[in-house]
Amino acid sequence: DVKVTQSSRYLVKRTGEKVFLECVQDMDHENMFWYRQDPGLGLRLIYFSYDVKMKEKGDIPEGYSVSREKKERFSLILESASTNQTSMYLCASSETSGGPGKTQYFGPGTRLLVL
Amino acid sequence: GNSVTQMEGPVTLSEEAFLTINCTYTATGYPSLFWYVQYPGEGLQLLLKATKADDKGSNKGFEATYRKETTSFHLEKGSVQVSDSAVYFCALSDRGSSNTGKLIFGQGTTLQVKP
Questions:
Q1: Least confident stretch, A50-64, B29-43, B84-98
Q2: Cβ neighbours of residue A104 under 8 Å, at least 6 residues apart?
């Protein structure tokens, strides 16, 4: 079975802290994504990666960075956490081959509270 | 730019009622269209998809037809169950994103089914 795991389900951090969110997939997928989910706004793409060490900004990259040193792992970094980064963070992966209509597989999400 | 618009929620129905969740999109060319579902406390999972005009996606009693002329992909189910209570997201992937699988999501529609 396809699996995407995220390192924490819930996190509480203080303003100014550096925060690491980890995501691991076991499907050998090339593409990985980080979204944040906020009520009434749906999912918004923060960053995505299409290969090891390759990344592209999504729609809301400000205040975030990412790292992909291995194919199966994609990390989201909040350099200096702020209260407006309190949100649900979702990781996903998809393959490159197979034509249009690729399915994204999601992790369970990390609910982050920044105090 | 590309966008997806869903009907506002929450939608509250009694068990065995008919469900429609409206979704319209704006995109150039011929995008692929998706419905994802998020059950309480979980990440998103693919419910169904369609990759070309007039295709019908179906799964678990849910259906949606890709209507190019009305740029719509409305989700329907003939008889909902309490277990269908979840948040439903409409999404599109344009042809330019066919390798990366990047998705653009609507804002989500919460469905609550009462016994």
A1: B84-98
A2: A33, A92, A93, A94, B44, B46, B101, B103
Where does residue B93 rank: exposed (0-12), middle (13-18), buried (19+ CB within 10 A)?
buried
Alpha-carbon dihedral sign for residues B27, B44, B112, B10: negative
B44/A106 touch (CB, cutoff 8 Å), yes or no: yes
Token pair of B77 as six digits: 């189910």
Q: Over the stretch A19-56, which tens digit does the pLDDT of each residue have?
A: 999 999 999 999 999 999 998 888 999 999 988 989 99
Check: CB of residue B109 under 8 Å from CB of residue B8.
Answer: yes
In a 10 Å sphere around its CB, with 0-12 CB exposed, 13-18 middle and 19+ buried, how is residue B41 labelled?
Answer: exposed
Contact B93 A108 (CB under 8 A): no
